[in-house]
Amino acid sequence: MNDINPIDSRHSRPLDVHIWSDHTEVNSLADFIFNTFTEVERHSIKGRSNNKGKASGITLLKLILIDLYVAWKTDPELSIGVARGNGAYKVNSRYNALFISSRIREVIDLLISRDYLDSIGGSHDRVGKGQGSHTSRIRASSKLREAFKKLTIEPYHLNLNHNQECITLSDYDTDDEGNFVRMVKGNSTVKKRIFVEYKDTDNPNLVSMRSDLQKYNKLLKQTYVDIPALEEPFITRQLKNGNTQRVQINQTGKFVRRIFSRGSWEMNGRFYGGFWQQISEDLRKKIYINDNPTVEVDYKGLHAAILSARQGVFDSSDRYDLGRQILPDFDLK
């Protein structure tokens, strides 16, 4: 008997190709499910010896199971979006640390045929501007959820960002939260690559930028960030397109990336990723770090505050309202 609602395509997140673990429980589960396949099925997903760096069928199976487990632990009704296009998985990309190939679709289809997954197909909106389009969705079936219930490992014990690239170069613009925004021309959306491949020699600061951010992410991984005032470990917010989104407040949403836009190292370069960037100012005031209350520094008004102090102007109102006094030529619009 199904104990959760049917899959809602809007309540989902993309497949995470950077999640990994060699924990005994994970290996045992993957081996158990792999051994339920027939010899022909096992051979079909194992792959050949000349894969040239592509992930094996066992690796793909483990990744799917781990990501489904994290989704189930986070929210039993959360589904995972899986792209099925031939160009969706670029094996030698710096954004694909586990060398996931399009063969992952075969593993997913096999899991569906063996009733380990619930699924719905993708949809392509040919009328509007693409808002109605979505990839296929998968979620752990009741059969797989029963197997998950026997596991004791918690999501934060897993390697949630295995070798994940933290410096991203994109052809797209980004919004205030780091989501990629496609350019719209007329009634169609211009299709561009989301991630741009690059070499570390393309920018003299890349190596140091990555090193600093890796250290910061390591610190975040070791730090407990929470909002104890919440009754549930998530908040629901309204999106600009009218839909709602559930933002999980837990230890799995702390990885930070630096994203450059429009294929240029001169555009954007802001930091995105932490769940605290997706919540309101009122909730951010309630964040605790390692069980200690925090104070949020107002970086947005910091420079205006410095200028006003230099002019001897002290006021508790918005510092940018003082712009005409401090910088007469400053265009407030």
Summarize the structure in words.
The chain has 333 residues and is of the alpha+beta class. The protein folds into three domains: 1-164, no CATH class; 169-296, no CATH class; 297-333, no CATH class. 26% of the residues lie in helices and 16% in strands. It is built from nine helices and 16 strands. It has helices spanning 24-35, 39-46, 57-74, 104-113, 142-148, 206-221, 281-284, 302-310, 323-326; strands at residues 12-14, 79-82, 117-120, 136-140, 167-169, 173-174, 180-181, 184-185, 188-189, 225-226, 234-238, 244-248, 257-260, 268-272, 288-289, 292-293. The chain has a four-stranded mixed beta sheet with strand order 1-2-4-3. A three-stranded mixed beta sheet has the order 5-13-14. A hairpin with a 5-residue loop joins strand 11 and strand 12. Helix 1 (24-35) crosses helix 3 (57-74). The termini are far apart.
List keywords for this structure.
3 domains, 333 residues, 3-stranded mixed beta sheet, single chain, 16 strands, disordered C terminus, 9 helices, alpha+beta
- Major β-sheet profile: 4 strands, mixed
Total E-strand runs: 16
**Helix-strand pattern:** EHHHEHEEHEEEEEHEEEEEHEEHH
Structural class estimated from helices and strands:
alpha+beta
Count of DSSP helices?
9
Main sheet: strand order: 1-2-4-3
- Proportion of residues in helical segments: 25-40%
How much strand?
15-25%
Shape: globular
Q: In total, how many domains does the architecture comprise? A: 3
- Distance N terminus to C terminus? 59 Å
Rounded average pLDDT? 83
Unreliable spans = 126-130, 322-327, 329-333
Q: What is the alpha-carbon Rg in Å?
A: 23 Å
